[in-house]
Design a protein that fits this description.
It is a single chain. By secondary structure, the protein is an alpha/beta fold. The chain has a single domain, classed as TIM Barrel. It is about 40% helix and about 15% strand. Helix 11 packs across helix 12. Bound molecules: 3-hydroxy-3-methylglutaryl-coenzyme A (HMG) and magnesium ion. The site of magnesium ion has 6 residues, from loops.
Amino acid sequence: MNVPAPGLPARVRIHEVGARDGLQNEKTAVPTAVKAEFIHRLAAAGLRTIEATSFVHPKWVPQLADAEELFPQLADVGAELPVLVPNERGLDRALALGARRIAVFGSATETFASRNLNRTVAESLAMFEPVVARAKEGDTPAHVRGYLSMCFGDPWEGPVPVHQVVSVAKALLDMGCDELSLGDTIGVATPGHVRALLAALNESGVTTDRIGVHFHDTYGQALSNTLAALQHGVTTVDASAGGLGGCPYAKSATGNLATEDLVWMLDGLGIETGVDLAALTATSVWMAEQLGRPSPSRTVRALSHKE
Ligand code: HMG
Ligand code: MG
């Protein structure tokens, strides 16, 4: 049943990350043809922004080492296809294939910056600067997302102070990122903390229309945290079909908020997403068969349950 609640947006843009955040974490690499079919099926289910892959060092993330092979197979997908790019080498690779949306990925903590990027926070920002500047050159500048990881807690450093997050967030926007995605990389956030961070960002001059949220569901809080963000005015929400995911450089990270769980809640609230939940669930059931294990999404399990 569709029962709207007050104070929520009419429409939410889902930034689908299953093919990137999800598949980067699989023990064995998924065949390129399966990835291409996955992304085509996600688009057919109505997703309009589908993160496709990463142009990172293939030794760091071997699961996505086929980016050059995969990306050209997506020319007819009919959705925006952002890709992760850590440095100029990655940007060259992405631009050579015609990528129009890129994402750099920073960290609010020193330990994760070092483990994920082999850099300090300051060095990683210096690495992103020419990437963003070059992506923005020319008559048709690329859209640039700035991910920010460990916005709430870090497995090595514990709770992360809000001011520390605000400072790196502002640096990413100041260098020219169009939007921010606040990552709860290990899923430890709770709704009050989400509100506090959003309020602190607003106070420092970052407007809510430039903020997306990226919750991992380790402690089952991702939907509650999403609702808190929607109540604050956020309209861009990252999610992963079937709840695939994690981060290979943050061992306690589990899958992202499952897109089906998100769409179930948004449908129930009468919030438009353009996503066909039945087609999306069928896609995640198919993907779970390819991976050889069931989806952790409660909604996928409920909708695909057969007596
Ligand atoms: P490094 O070892 O410091 O690299 O890694 P380097 O700059 O010293 O270069 C060494 C060699 O690598 C050079 O080759 C480069 O050309 C090559 P050589 O000259 O020695 O022959 N190289 C590359 N080759 C291909 N593509 C590239 C590239 N860059 C350098 N892009 C680096 C630094 C940033 C490359 C490495 O740390 C890396 O690739 N890290 C990526 C880690 C990653 O992808 N993590 C997962 C994504 S983040 C995430 O999941 C969190 C998120 O979901 C949000 C959340 O949940 O919080 C986004
Ligand atoms: Mg993530």
